[in-house]
């Protein structure tokens, strides 16, 4: 038995708050069992073969019983699988990580625990509340608002007399009782309280009040679980320290791994960008024709160009043997990418090139289909249906028509019916046409340039 279970902390919600080792473990996993509070974007870090199981528990509605989860962890590990048990926040801060570890230990299963950033601390920071501060709180106390049916009762006398910050998790159903107990045991009813829902995520919401009025505020602003209840003087600092960026609250969907710059710029402006999977690229085994026969090389896309260079090297051909050939790029993106490697390509097919002496390099289908075509790779669809509710997105960004096809290919029937309600940013005219054709309700055309697209997204949402 070489299996292993990793109890992995996913962090408080925003996928970028996962640890580096956490990302690596997801990539290595054969099976991932994940919780309800996990941002589905994290699943994009798994490999294509991994089995993904939602064991998410809805409040009062256990999808998969804890005993069943324990059993699954043991069974999969015994089959020799690398199992990741992906848990919100830190695995050992509530959420039954300790119980799972005990079971694994009892059954002799090899396991490890990888910490995560807990919402109980980071969730406050995301709302501009330092959990300690020399002037306001010299300790903090993290307390569960949820108890085993006949389990322990809280020592309210003790809790109410703490000078430090008190954070309740899983407490929303008990909020009136929590406030009442604190006041009854001596806390001033004027003590500041913050409720932070979906902390660190695009849908983060917060209300601030005191022990007397917080219940009414929560009802008025319709806040519910999952949320943190923060009691203490540090709450007052939120007014001064809560940072809102231009795209705070904007939730975008973008293609995975491509355009890291697009992702970074949007996140830096405060947006949350989730990913959708692109098709997998499979290089094809090809025989290189004699290069000397051609005057021009038509490059359909950047990937084909890289595959082509690899093929040259494999055949012992120096790239300088292309020196007298015209390099023709099928679109501006190829032009830009080639420029970075020092090649100034011609955009589009010039009239004066004799067709029979061109070789076109691309994926499965040629763009021009003149002269010789060398198919260098194939695309393999990912099997995963996108684990998102598309209604939750402010927009999707498409850098290419291929990215639209990949997106549509991984939608369920229900998701397909939601496309007409989605806003799409299309980088370029062709992409715009494809997005309209795909049925997007509102298509915004952007220049085919990351920087300019980011500016456009910013303008679009800052006006809202
Ligand atoms: N292990 C987790 C906590 C699990 S208990 C951690 O370390 O964060 C589940 C409770 O955590 C929820 O009921 C809620 O009170 C809190 N919680 C988790 N993520 C949250 C988030 N992003 N925003 C607000 N509360 C959150």
From TrEMBL:
Record organism: Limosilactobacillus reuteri MM4-1A
One BP annotation, GO: methylation
InterPro entries: 4pyrrol_Mease, 4pyrrol_Methylase_sf, 4pyrrol_syn_uPrphyn_synt_sf, 4pyrrole_Mease_sub1, 4pyrrole_Mease_sub2, CobA/CysG_C, Siro_Cobalamin_biosynth, Uropor_MeTrfase_CS
UniProt cross-references to Pfam families, sorted A to Z: TP_methylase
GO molecular function: uroporphyrin-III C-methyltransferase activity; uroporphyrinogen-III synthase activity
EC number in record: 2.1.1.107
PROSITE patterns named among the record's database cross-references: SUMT_2
Residue ranges annotated for the Tetrapyrrole methylase domain, each copy included: 5-214
Protein name, entry field: Uroporphyrinogen-III C-methyltransferase
Enzyme class: transferase
Keyword Glycoprotein appears in the UniProt entry: no
The entry's keywords: Methyltransferase, Porphyrin biosynthesis, S-adenosyl-L-methionine, Transferase
Family under the similarity heading: Belongs to the precorrin methyltransferase family.
């Amino acid at each position: 038995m070489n299996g292993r279970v990793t109890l992995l902390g996913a962090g408080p919600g925003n996928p970028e708050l996962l640890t580096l080792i956490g990302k690596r473990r997801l990539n290595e996993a054969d099976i991932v069992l994940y919780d309800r509070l996990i941002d589905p974007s994290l699943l994009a870090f798994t490999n294509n073969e991994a089995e993904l199981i939602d064991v998410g528990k809805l409040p009062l509605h256990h999808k998969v019983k804890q005993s069943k989860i324990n059993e699954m962890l043991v069974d999969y590990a015994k089959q020799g699988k690398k199992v990741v048990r992906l848990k919100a926040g830190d695995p050992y801060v509530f959420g039954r990580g300790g119980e799972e570890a005990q079971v694994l230990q009892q059954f002799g299963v090899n396991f490890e625990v990888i910490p995560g950033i807990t919402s109980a601390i980071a969730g406050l920071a995301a709302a501009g509340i330092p959990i300690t501060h020399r002037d306001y709180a010299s300790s903090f106390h993290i307390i569960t608002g949820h108890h085993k049916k006949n389990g322990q009762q809280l020592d309210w006398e003790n809790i109410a007399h703490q000078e430090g910050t008190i954070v309740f998790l899983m407490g929303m159903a008990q909020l009136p009782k929590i406030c009442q107990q604190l006041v009854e045991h001596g806390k001033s009813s004027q003590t500041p309280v913050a409720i932070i829902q979906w902390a660190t995520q695009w849908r983060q919401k917060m209300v601030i009040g005191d022990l007397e009025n917080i219940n009414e505020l929560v009802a008025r602003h319709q806040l519910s679980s999952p949320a943190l209840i923060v009691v203490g003087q540090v709450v007052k600092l939120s007014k001064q320290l809560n940072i809102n960026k231009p795209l705070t609250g904007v939730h975008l969907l973008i293609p995975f791994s491509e355009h890291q710059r697009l992702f970074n710029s949007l996140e830096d402006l405060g947006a949350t960008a989730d990913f959708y999977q692109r098709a997998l690229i499979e290089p094809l085994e090809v025989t290189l024709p004699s290069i000397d026969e051609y005057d021009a090389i038509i490059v359909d896309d950047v990937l084909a160009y890289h595959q082509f260079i690899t093929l040259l090297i494999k055949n012992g051909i120096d790239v300088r043997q292309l020196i007298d050939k015209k390099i023709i790029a099928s679109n501006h993106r190829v032009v830009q990418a080639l420029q970075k490697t020092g090649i100034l390509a011609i955009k589009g097919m010039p009239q004066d090139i004799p067709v029979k002496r061109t070789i076109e390099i691309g994926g499965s289908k040629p763009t021009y289909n003149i002269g010789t075509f060398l198919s260098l790779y194939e695309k393999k669809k990912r099997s995963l249906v996108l684990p998102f509710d598309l209604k939750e997105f402010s927009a999707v960004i498409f850098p290419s028509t291929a990215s639209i096809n990949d997106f549509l290919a991984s939608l369920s029937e229900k998701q397909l019916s939601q496309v007409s309600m989605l806003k799409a940013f299309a980088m370029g005219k062709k992409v715009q046409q494809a997005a309209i054709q795909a049925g997007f309700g509102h298509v915004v055309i952007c220049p085919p340039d990351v920087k300019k697209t980011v500016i456009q997204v910013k303008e679009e949402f800052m006006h809202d």
